[in-house]
Specification:
Elements: H1 5-9, H2 16-22, H3 28-38, E1 45-49, H4 55-60, E2 66-71, H5 74-84, E3 90-94, E4 107-112, H6 121-129, E5 132-144, H7 153-165, H8 170-176, H9 183-188, E6 194-206, H10 208-216, H11 223-226, H12 228-245, E7 251-263
Parallel strand pairs: 1-2, 1-4, 2-3, 4-5
Antiparallel strand pairs: 5-7, 6-7
Helix pairs in contact: 2-10, 7-12, 10-12
Length: 268
């Protein structure tokens, strides 16, 4: 079935309301390590580019003078405003990486979750070069679940279930495509070629509701893309999977969260 133009052009519109309930937040320990490594101070500015519901922006707000949360999806910014609008030094801006407003100003850090994969990465870094002050950095955050950890035994089936219900999103398709380069390769050929990677591993508990929201927060399995019937079917399968692996309703999860810090050679 062909997608409507609106769904195809706004893949995260209906996913936005599920983000905060389904996506695990980056650990405070990881944010703290990035703050220390980059020397972020209360006088500095941070840009969360492709912010989604601004979880990273909110996490950096206590350590910076001002944080700009930018995203092209109005629904993401609406959700972000509802959740974090009370944070005084956090400002929400509508925009894309290929159309950064000229009056946005300079930044000590530009942080991104998984949004970098959706961008023209080389061009984005060239644009950011003029916006990041000396001794500043680009920081790419990611999170995964190691398959060979017993707590994550359910995740292989959960991931397969999601992919069965929705085609792989654009970012994953690009990663599998011939010629796709890892972020590290793009950064090494940019002005931000000095790379450090820091990571944190955490164990937590979660239930069926969180996994349902997580699936619905993906562009490939967002409610608009699946439709009501397919969404209900997927939700039922997720709930059955949780009952199989955790009859008491609580699954274990081990998450490995990482931050790739990229700086200019003269700034390290």
């Amino acid at each position: 079935m062909a997608l409507s133009t609106d769904v195809a052009s706004r893949p995260f519109r209906s996913a936005a309301r599920h983000y905060l309930a389904g996506r695990p937040r980056y650990p405070d320990r990881l944010i703290g390590r990035v703050v220390r490594l980059c020397g972020l101070t209360a006088g500095d500015r941070v840009l969360d580019l492709g912010c989604g519901p601004a979880m990273l922006a909110a996490a950096f707000a206590p350590f910076a003078g001002e944080v700009i949360a930018m995203d092209p999806e109005p629904e993401m910014l609406r959700v972000a405003g509802e959740a974090f609008g009370h944070i005084g030094n956090l400002r929400f801006v509508s925009g894309r990486s290929d159309d950064l407003p000229a009056d946005l100003g300079d930044f000590r850090l530009v942080v991104m979750g998984r949004s970098f994969a959706w961008m023209d990465r080389g061009e984005t870094l060239r644009r950011l070069e003029a916006m990041i002050v000396p001794r500043g950095a680009v920081v790419l955050f990611d999170a995964g679940h190691p398959d060979d950890v017993p707590d994550n035994a359910w995740n292989v089936r959960y991931r397969a279930l999601r992919h069965r219900h929705g085609e792989a999103n654009v970012a994953n398709t690009r990663r599998r495509a011939a010629g796709w380069l890892r972020h590290e390769a793009i950064l090494l050929d940019s002005a931000f070629s000095v790379l450090d990677s820091v990571g944190v591993i955490e164990r937590r508990r979660l239930g069926a509701a969180e996994l349902v929201h997580r699936a619905l927060s993906m562009s490939s399995t967002a409610p608009d893309r699946l439709g009501d019937a397919a969404t209900a079917l997927m939700v039922g399968e997720i709930e059955a999977l949780v009952r199989e692996f955790a009859p008491d309703g609580g699954l274990g999860e081990v998450m490995q969260a990482t931050a790739l810090v990229a700086r200019r050679p003269g700034d390290v």
